Amino acid sequence: MMSGKHFKAHEVSCCIKYFIFGFNIIFWFLGVAFLGIGLWAWSEKGVLSNISSITDLGGFDPVWLFLVVGGVMFILGFAGCIGALRENSFLLKFFSVFLGIIFFLELTAGVLAFVFKDWIKDQLNFFINNNIRAYRDDIDLQNLIDFTQEYWECCGAFGADDWNLNIYFNCTDSNPSREKCGVPFSCCTKDPALESKLSWQPLSTIMTGLQKEMEPSVFSPVGLYQHSKEDVINTQCGYDIRAKTDSEQRNFIYIKGCVPQFEKWLQENLTVVAGIFIGIALLQIFGICLAQNLVSDIDAVRESWVHAPCMQFVYLRPPQNLQRQEGCTRTLFFGRQRRKGNK
User: Fold this and answer.
1) Which residues are CB-contacts of 100 (< 8 A; sequence separation ≥ 6)?
2) What is the pLDDT of residue 327?
3) Is 107 a domain residue?
4) pLDDT value for 8
């Protein structure tokens, strides 16, 4: 028979454990996907076959975004996923510390950006101008700059003249390029007649005109969006534009620079941007708290095994195959108490 006081054993919360596991396995897979995209892009550009070419690009390679973000997500996802599944305190503590460092860096960057606005603006100007110089050197960088100028309807860092920094677009007499004194097509204003690349027409109108020559259309529930053959981007719209006067340039290209346009956009969408950053910060704090809670549960379970109360067994007749157990198990033989380790 067994006597002694019963005790309540500590348990690891399954809800917290599998929530951390499920959340981080998504991050883990996303990190693998981002790393795969980045490595594939470098493979297509021949960087993997010539590692030294990484430093050849004078501007910013957007592939680094995929590699850095993917690497961070992979490490966090791995530590959180495996740490929760295997109840590994070391990996969970590493997950919490790593996530805390990221949170601290984000908080520091936000405070510095608010306090040193002018310095941030100068650094952004330097960054954009440095990438303008390398515009034709990398197709990914070129696409990133074109997207930025089209989205914010801007040209250069503080104006179209910043494109004089590029060897293909500068206005020097020694420049043999056809793009001399020009700007990329992404600086050009949209033609009001062709501003919408897709024109909406009722389904009946499109169906009756299918015999006419046209580009393939995109179906919608109530109609069709039709591409016209005339909707072609004029990639030469910025040629020789900076040789014209400022008043003439306004009719063809964006005059404002991307730095003031970004600043204007940030002020107009400050609430949304702040909400996104606060949401990310709260998720990080929530993740740290959950991981620490799980670590506490794991440590409590281990502690309960080390300091478990002694179990007392009383035998009327000693069993033949009695095995002495490690720990503080006590056994009584015919009223005589014997404790392992005590003679």
Assistant:
1) 284, 288
2) 46
3) yes
4) 53
